[in-house]
């Protein structure tokens, strides 16, 4: 009998999507569910984006594009780096992708061979290691918990590079913690990796979602970094499946050939619409202000509920919470929380296969009313839970 490949069998489920499915089933059955599990910004894409999409749909120019994406979008992304970071980036280094997910696949295939070892901060976005498994690349989990300031320790990175590690992927702001790397730390990590001939990859999909200090792009500290970004989070375009990479010159042609064969091109309508996203700042900043209020509200009120061991939440829209005083099984705990209160949260095991059974991630990109209602439910439910 035929069986799935061993490669496919090594890819773990994306647990948050399982939580989302159960939450949707409950909602379909008439239950009131508050979504704090997924990083889905509340509300639609910006009005300017929807108008640009409607205009594009009325044209006859929606066929294939070149694999790198349409020139006007790449030029507008280059202008973004000039406006936000004072950098002059050649549009030819910019590569439009099918969301950041498509960017990760192309970047990993272009930069690494099967069997290569690549470092990841732990906890971290689960799709990194799962894509690596699917590509027969070995993820090296580098502990980056509260004792390490939620950042990959430099000495451990050096040790793994000396042992043959071929690259390092970091995220700032990070998922699930919201922690951000300083410009100095980003520069040091990039330099250490690149001195060994390795690839430094920076996931920047939560850029512009920072609350007390601005995020640094790796392009400010390295001209060889692989930078990945997306229109999903700050720009609220999750389902549009549109993102981008900035690549060093030697990876441009390999990435183009891979994209031609794997994806052909990113969705054409989304490419045209994404140009307008950069001019929707007023609407986007108003939404970000809601996230900022949600963040303030949770950081001030969760400790009163006994949830006082929290990640810094410098950016993005997540709080990673140590619940080890309540459970040693975050999957079962999240399932009970959902079924008994209607509040959906993500088990830490999704982000950390080592210590994640002691953590939950709360997403606060919902409306402020929903965040307040969720906290009320938690306040009633948590005192009933048995201590471990």
> What fraction of the residues are assigned to beta strands by DSSP?
5-15%
End-to-end C-alpha gap: 45 Å
Please work out how many helical segments DSSP would assign: 13
Strand order of the largest sheet: 2-8-7-6-5-3-4
- The succession of helices and strands, N to C, reads HHEHHEHEHEHEHEEEHHHEHEEEH
How is this structure best described in words?
The chain is α/β, with parallel strands linked by helices and 388 residues long. The chain has 2 domains: 6-44 and 281-381, Type I PLP-dependent aspartate aminotransferase-like (Major domain) (Aspartate Aminotransferase, domain 2, 3-Layer(aba) Sandwich); 61-277, Aspartate Aminotransferase, domain 2 (3-Layer(aba) Sandwich), CATH 3.40.640.10. Helices cover 41% and strands 13% of the residues. The strands form 3 sheets. Strands 2-8-7-6-5-3-4 form a 7-stranded mixed beta sheet, with helices on both faces. Strands 9-12-11 form a 3-stranded antiparallel beta sheet. Helix 3 (47-57) runs antiparallel to helix 10 (268-277) and helix 11 (281-301) packs parallel to helix 13. The mean pLDDT is 95.
Secondary structure blueprint with pairings:
Elements: H1 6-9, H2 15-28, E1 34-35, H3 47-57, H4 71-85, E2 94-97, H5 99-111, E3 117-122, H6 126-134, E4 138-143, H7 154-162, E5 167-171, H8 183-195, E6 199-203, E7 226-230, E8 243-246, H9 249-262, H10 268-277, H11 281-301, E9 318-322, H12 330-341, E10 343-344, E11 346-347, E12 359-363, H13 368-381
């Amino acid at each position: 009998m035929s069986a799935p490949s061993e490669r496919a069998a090594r890819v773990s489920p994306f647990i948050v999507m399982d939580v989302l499915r159960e939450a949707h089933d409950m909602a379909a059955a008439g239950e009131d569910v508050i979504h704090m599990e997924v990083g889905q910004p509340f509300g639609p894409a910006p009005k300017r984006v929807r108008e640009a999409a409607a205009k594009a749909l009325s044209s006859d120019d929606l066929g294939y594009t070149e694999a790198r994406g349409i020139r006007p979008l790449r030029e507008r992304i280059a202008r973004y780096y000039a406006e936000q970071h004072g950098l002059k980036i050649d549009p030819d280094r910019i590569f439009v992708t099918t969301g950041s997910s498509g960017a990760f696949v192309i970047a990993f295939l272009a930069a690494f061979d099967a069997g290569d070892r690549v470092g990841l901060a732990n906890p971290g976005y689960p799709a990194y290691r799962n894509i690596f498994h699917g590509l027969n690349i070995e993820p090296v989990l580098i502990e980056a918990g509260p004792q390490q300031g939620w950042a990959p320790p430099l000495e451990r990175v050096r040790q793994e590079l000396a042992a043959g590690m071929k690259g390092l992927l970091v995220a700032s702001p990070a998922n699930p913690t919201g922690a951000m790397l300083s410009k100095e730390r980003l520069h040091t990590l990039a330099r250490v990796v690149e001195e060994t001939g390795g690839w430094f990859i920076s996931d920047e999909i939560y850029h512009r979602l920072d609350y007390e200090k601005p995020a640094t792009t790796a392009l400010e500290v390295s001209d060889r970094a692989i930078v990945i970004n997306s229109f999903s989070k700050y720009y609220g375009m999750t389902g549009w499946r549109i993102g981008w990479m900035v690549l060093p010159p030697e990876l441009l042609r390999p990435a183009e050939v891979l994209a031609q064969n794997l994806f052909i091109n990113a969705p054409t309508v989304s490419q045209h619409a994404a140009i307008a996203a950069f001019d929707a700042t007023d609407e986007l900043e108003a939404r970000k202000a809601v996230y900022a209020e949600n963040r303030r509200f949770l950081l001030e009120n969760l400790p009163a509920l006994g949830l006082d061991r929290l990640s810094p939440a410098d950016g993005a829209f997540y709080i990673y919470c140590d619940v080890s005083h309540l459970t040693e099984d975050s999957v079962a705990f999240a399932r009970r929380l959902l079924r008994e209160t209607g509040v959906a949260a993500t088990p830490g095991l999704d982000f950390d296969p080592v210590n994640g059974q002691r953590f939950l991630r709360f997403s606060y990109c919902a409306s402020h009313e929903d965040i307040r209602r969720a906290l009320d439910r938690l306040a009633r439910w948590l005192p009933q839970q048995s201590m471990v």
